[in-house]
């Protein structure tokens, strides 16, 4: 085909694609305005926002941007919205996301935002709240208790058995202020029922109590040795090995703190990953940002506050899988969480705000929903926090021009024909028109 015919065909295809894109049905027209966080005090925060039409509202929130595991909301339709988040801890960063639904069930999600409780005020009359408490382990003569409060507290632990009685309870003081606590109590009697009362006190002197009841074993635990068992993965083909991560699981017979030292050379562990800062029996950690098809060597390092025991495993190894999938650079994707990424080679780059997303020329219907296992194939690269040049893999054109280019290594490469464009799997509806003032060096034809 002669070059002028190629150009005419290509221009015609661009024209048709622009007409098609302009007639496409847009996403819900729900718009968020004036989102603000107010009244951060007493373990609570108020989220306010306005929508351009009547919607219901749900706020997902948590202290991990990848796991907004708490939610609160209401089913009343309104344009002005106010929701109170509760159970907040001091000195933390909380992430939140608003989901609005209108009367015809269109839904719109706001980008994830955050606020800090570093300077959270507390009224002196508000008592601390126990968020979690459990018995981690009990032996014949010792126990491990865990509790978590909604603010920093210290504590007194009182304990007694049936023969001793509450009026002769023994006391252990926990003097450090923290949110999460664990306590090891030794020198208990075998085969006895024990009662524990934890009195947690905040910095203002407000106090709350929580009770535990345990039964010590009636057999002798003397000579216990710290051991590690049920280790996974132990082979090269187990299901928890992926191309860029591996999920390591194991169990200790005594409640222990553990970490993993690992590297790509046997006997030389250049990286360390903490599994748990608090003691536990069951342990799980995900090692991330690994290289595909690479053998890693690792050791499990453990220490237990029960009987002051330590244990280091023998060296073990695993080989990561090859890359399971390949997304084109420039693809806009999201998994099951709330981050929207653009793929750049072997990396995923988080687009931090809706404003940046829109100013780059991206459209909401360009977002491809992918499985989390696919998304984890890509390393977490730098986040995109400001408007800059378009990334590799972006399709661009200049105004009043039929030529379409692919950005690659900082240059724009023109497509030689419409057939080439289609054969390479690109979408006519995902071409961004850029200003004539934005100049790139022109690379070779595709």
Q: Can you describe this structure?
A:
- With 446 residues, the chain is mainly β.
- It has four domains: 32-116, Immunoglobulins (Immunoglobulin-like), CATH 2.60.40.10; 130-215, Immunoglobulins (Immunoglobulin-like), CATH 2.60.40; 228-319, Immunoglobulins (Immunoglobulin-like, Sandwich), CATH 2.60.40.10; 332-442, no CATH class.
- The chain is built from four helices and 27 strands.
- It has helices spanning 3-23, 354-359, 372-375, 418-423, and strands at 32-41, 44-62, 70-85, 93-102, 107-109, 113-116, 130-138, 143-161, 170-185, 193-202, 207-215, 228-232, 246-263, 271-287, 295-304, 309-312, 316-319, 332-334, 341-344, 347-350, 368-369, 379-380, 395-397, 405-408, 411-414, 431-433, 441-442.
- The strands form five sheets. Strands 1, 2, 3, 4, 5 and 6 form a six-stranded antiparallel beta sheet that branches. Strands 12, 13, 14, 15, 16 and 17 form a six-stranded antiparallel beta sheet that branches. Strands 7, 8, 9, 10 and 11 form a five-stranded antiparallel beta sheet that branches.
- A hairpin with an 8-residue loop joins strand 8 and strand 9 (170-185).
- The longest helix is centred in the N-terminal third of the chain and has 21 residues, at 3-23.
- 22% of the residues are buried.
- Mean pLDDT is 83; it is low at 4-27.
């Amino acid at each position: 085909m002669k070059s002028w015919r190629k150009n005419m065909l290509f221009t015609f295809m661009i024209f048709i694609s622009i007409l098609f894109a302009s007639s496409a049905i847009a996403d819900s027209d729900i718009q968020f305005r004036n989102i603000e966080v107010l009244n951060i005090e007493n373990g609570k925060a108020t989220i306010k926002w306005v929508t351009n039409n009547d919607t219901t509202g749900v706020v997902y929130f948590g202290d991990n941007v990848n796991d907004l595991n708490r939610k609160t909301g209401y089913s009343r339709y309104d344009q002005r919205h106010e929701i109170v988040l509760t159970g907040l801890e001091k000195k933390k960063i909380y992430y939140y996301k608003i989901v609005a639904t209108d009367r015809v069930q269109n839904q719109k999600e706001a980008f994830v935002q955050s606020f800090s409780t570093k300077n959270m005020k507390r009224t002196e009359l508000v008592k601390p709240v126990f968020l979690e408490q459990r018995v981690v382990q009990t032996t014949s003569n010792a126990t491990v208790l865990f509790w978590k409060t909604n603010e920093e507290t210290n504590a007194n632990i009182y304990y007694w058995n049936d023969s001793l009685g509450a009026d002769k309870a023994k006391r252990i003081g926990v003097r450090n202020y923290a949110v999460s606590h664990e306590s090891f109590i030794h020198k208990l009697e075998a085969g006895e029922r024990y009662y524990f009362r934890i009195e947690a006190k905040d910095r203002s002197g407000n106090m709350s109590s929580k009770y535990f009841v345990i039964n010590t074993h009636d057999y002798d635990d003397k000579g216990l040795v710290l051991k590690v068992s049920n280790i996974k993965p132990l082979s090269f083909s187990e299901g928890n090995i992926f191309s860029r991560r591996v999920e390591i699981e194991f169990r200790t017979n005594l409640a222990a703190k553990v970490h993993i030292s690992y590297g790509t050379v046997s006997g030389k562990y250049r990286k360390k990953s903490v599994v748990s800062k608090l003691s536990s029996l069951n342990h799980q950690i995900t090692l991330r940002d690994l290289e595909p098809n690479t053998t890693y060597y690792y050791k499990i390092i453990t220490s237990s506050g029960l009987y002051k025991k330590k244990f280091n495993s023998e060296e073990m190894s695993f080989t990561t899988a090859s890359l399971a999938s390949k997304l084109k650079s420039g693809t806009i994707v999201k998994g099951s969480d709330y981050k929207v990424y653009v793929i750049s080679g072997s990396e995923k780059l988080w687009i931090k705000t809706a404003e940046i997303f829109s100013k780059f020329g991206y459209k909401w219907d360009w977002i491809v929903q992918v499985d989390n296992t696919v998304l984890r194939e890509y390393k977490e690269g730098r986040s995109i926090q400001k408007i800059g040049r378009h990334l590799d893999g972006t399709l661009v054109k200049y105004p009043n021009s039929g030529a379409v280019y692919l950005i690659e290594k900082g240059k724009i490469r023109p497509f030689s024909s419409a057939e080439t464009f289609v054969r390479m799997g690109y979408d006519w509806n995902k071409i961004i028109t850029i200003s004539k003032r934005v100049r790139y060096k022109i690379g070779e034809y595709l």
